Amino acid sequence: MSTSPSTIKLLSIDIGIKNLAFCLFEIENNSYSVKKWDIVNIGEETPLLCGEIENDKSKTKSTNICNKPAKYTKNNKCYCLKHSKKQVFHVPTKELEQSYLNKQKINNLFELAEKYNISYAKPIKKQDLIHLFNEYVLNKCFEPVNITNSNKVDIISIGKNIKKKFDEIFTTNNIYDNIDVILIENQISPIANRMKTIQGMVAQYFIMKSSTSHKQHIEFVSSFNKLKEVAKNNNNNNTTITSDTHPPEKTDKAKYNDRKKLGISTCLENLEKSHSNDEWVNFFNKHSKKDDLADCFLQGIWYIKNKL
């Protein structure tokens, strides 16, 4: 950076889809503190919500829409697990799935038909009986809400999620306007084309948000730099430090997992050294995605120690 203000706000971002991690540091008088730290899922599609009415049991007797995540749909209506139990429709089972029915002998299908009270006239061919099962599912059963794999969510939806989620996080209390440095993990793997695109979208979000009154420094940072912090604390460890940002082949899986564990322990050691980060020690220890949190944290620490 060309300038050295007395207080610097630094945002470090570790690129991901389901687990994009960010850490906001404040650096003052050669010491740092964590101001905001979390994981963001930018691979979510717009969730379907239960539209059933919740009756208020209080004296006001007002009515509210449930709005809980929907588990099932039927006839263009959405139902949570609780409200689905109050409907006349049934939850579809695996034995009613087409793939299961196709594998069954006709005698097994006769037994299933009796179980679900599906009427038919003998003699009947197997395919005709399966057709009756399909009609039963269509008319009597819910359709389950399928959760799309984050790797299959289209780039446009991801872009919209970046804007929505980042606006919610960084426009609160004008957090964005006070950020001086933005670090974004550089995606260099030849199989990371999708992640490279997301890296660019994240950078573009901050470029478009920047103002002429407060210029920010945006930098793509090699994933290898954060590993230097791990290496410093593990000089006597036999683990090989590599710059791979994605899980390697099975032969190197152990080394990859070891590096993740070292990153977590190094992150925790850094947190425990600073009394200003006591609350974040508890946050970090309880979090299920410590590896991603550690990645964005160590990336920021490397920059603070070597670039500021």
TrEMBL record:
InterPro entries on file: RNaseH-like_sf, RNaseH_sf, Ydc2_cat
MF terms in GO: nucleic acid binding
Domain Mitochondrial resolvase Ydc2 catalytic: 11-71
Residue segments, region Disordered: 235-254
Protein name: Mitochondrial resolvase Ydc2 catalytic domain-containing protein
Organism, as annotated: viral metagenome
Lineage: unclassified sequences, metagenomes, organismal metagenomes
